[in-house]
Amino acid sequence: MWWLKATVISLSVCAVVGGRDFPPGFKFGASTAAYQVEGAWNASEKSMSIWDTYVHTYPHKIANNATGDVACDSYNNWKTDIELASKMGLHFYRFSISWPRLLPSGFPDYISKDGMRYYNNLIDALLENGIEPVVTIYHFDLPQSLQNLGGWTNPLVADWFANYARVVFSLFGDRVKTWITLNEPITFCDISYNIGNAAPGHTSPGVGSYICNKNAMLAHAKAYRIYEKEFKSKYNGKISISNQVFWFEPHTKSDNKAAEKARQLMAGMYYHPIFSKKGGWPPVIERIIAKKSKKEGLPYSRLPAFTKEEIKLVRGTYDFLGLNFYTSRTARVAKPGEQIGSWPFYGAPDLDIIVDVKPKWKKSDIWWLYINPEGIRNQLAWFKKEYGDIEILITENGFASYNDDINDKDRVQYYKDHLEQVLLAIKEDGVRVTGYSVWTLIDNFEWGDGYSVKFGLHHVNFDDPKRTRTPRASADYYASVIKSHSLDINNKITDSGTKK
C-alpha cells in the first residue's frame, strides 16, 4: 500500500530530484501562543480566560502547581522575542491573540485599547524586522465569561467566535496576510472533554467532545466566510485551520482498516468537512457512531449531524491546510472484552480500537511524544491522497525535553530527521508544502506539564524575573538551515552550540 512504502531513502535519491535544497519561496518560522508566553494574566483590562481559571482552581493538575500568570513575560519582553527571531533569520513568526485580552467581555461591545496597542506593536515590529506575522485567532484561551455560558458546547459559540474574528480582521488585517482561525480543536474538544486534563476541566466523552467538534467547524467556517466577504478583496490574505495529527500505522499487517479509521477520526473529523469535495463528517466515522448510538438505545447519533446548509457553509473554507505534527501511534482492533482507553492517546472507544506505539520508536521526555520522523511524510502524503493537490503549511513541529541543556543534540536530531522527511514529501511525493514552523521559539508554559518540559529553541530562565533567553544549539542549527535554504549546511554545530 502507498503509505507503507519505504521511507528511509538515501541522500543520493534526494540529489536526483534536486538535491537537499528547499523549493524557492519555502518559508521557515517559529510558533508561540498567547497564554503560554505572554503572562500579564490580569494586566490592565484583560479578563479571565478558562486557563486562568483552570490553573488557579486546580493547581494540583499542573506540574509543580505552575501557572501562566507570568510565563515568559512576553507581554513586556516582546521586543526581545523579535530580536531572537530576527537573529535566526525567521521568515515568519506565528503567535496567537488572546481573546480576553482584546475583548474583555468576550463580545465586541468593548475593545481593549491596551490589547490593541500590544498586538499592533508586535505586528509592526515584526514587519519592520522583515518577519511576516502569522496570526492564530484562537489558541485555547476562551474568555471565562463565555465558558460560563457553555463555551464550546454552546451552539452560539460559532457566532461569538465569528464576531471576535471580525474585530481581529478589521484591526490587523491590513498587515497580517496569513491567518489560522483555530489551533488544534482536537485538543480543546477531544482531549479536554474526553480526558478532562485541560481547561475547562469538564469530562463528557463521546458527547461533549462531538458537540465541540461540530461547533468548532462552524466557528471556523463563519470566520472564513466573514474574511472572504468583507476583507479578502481589500487585504488579499490567506486563512485556514490547524490541527494536531498523529500518524497512525497498523499495529499488525491485519490492522490496516483500523489504522485508516483512526486517521479519519483524528485528521478526517477536522479536515474532511473543510477539504473534501463532499464535505460533512468522514462517512465511515458517521456510520460507526450512529450505529453505536442506536445500540446504546439513543434515538439520535451522539455525533451531531450537519444540515445541508451547514455542509455548504463549511466545505471549501480554506486557502491552505495547517498541520501540527509531533508524533505517531499504531492502531489495532480491540479484543472482545478488552478495556479501551481514552481517545486519542490510548484508544478509540467508539471505533473499538486500541492505540499503541511501536517498540522501536524512541520516546522524548514528555509522555506522549514518541519519535517517528517518517510519520510526517506519510501524513503529508495522506493529505494529498485524501484532498488533492492542496497547499500545506506545517504550523508546529517540535521536541520535548526535561533538561535545560543548551547543547540540545536530541532536539537538533529531531529537526534534522523531520525536515528530511518533509523534503522527501515535497520532492518524492509531490506534496505542496510551502512552509515549516517549529514549536517553539522559547521555552514556555506547556499546559499540564507547566515549565517542567522544554520545547524551545531558546532556553528561558524562569527563576529570573527578567526571564532571560539563551539560544540553544537547535536555534543555531535551524538558523543555518534557514540561511542555506537547504539541509546541506556548510557550517557545522559544535558542542558549545556555535557555528564554525
The computed structural class is: alpha/beta
Q: Mean pLDDT, nearest integer?
A: 95
The share of residues in extended strands comes to: 5-15%
Task: Give the domain tally.
Answer: 1
Total count of helical runs of at least 4 residues: 16
Global outline: globular
Assign a percent range to the helix content.
25-40%
Task: Report the CATH topology name.
Answer: TIM Barrel
**β-strand number:** 16
Q: Tell me what the CATH architecture is.
A: Alpha-Beta Barrel
Query: What is the alpha-carbon Rg in Å?
Result: 22 Å
Poorly predicted regions: 1-17, 491-500
In the CATH scheme, the class would be Alpha Beta
Biggest sheet statistics: 8 strands, parallel, barrel
End-to-end CA span: 44 Å
Order of the strands making up the biggest sheet: 1-2-3-4-5-7-13-14
CATH superfamily: Glycosidases
Active site: 396
Subunit structure: Homodimer.
Family: Belongs to the glycosyl hydrolase 1 family.
GO molecular function: beta-glucosidase activity
List keywords for this structure.
four-stranded mixed beta sheet; 16 strands; 39% helix; 15% strand; globular; disordered N terminus
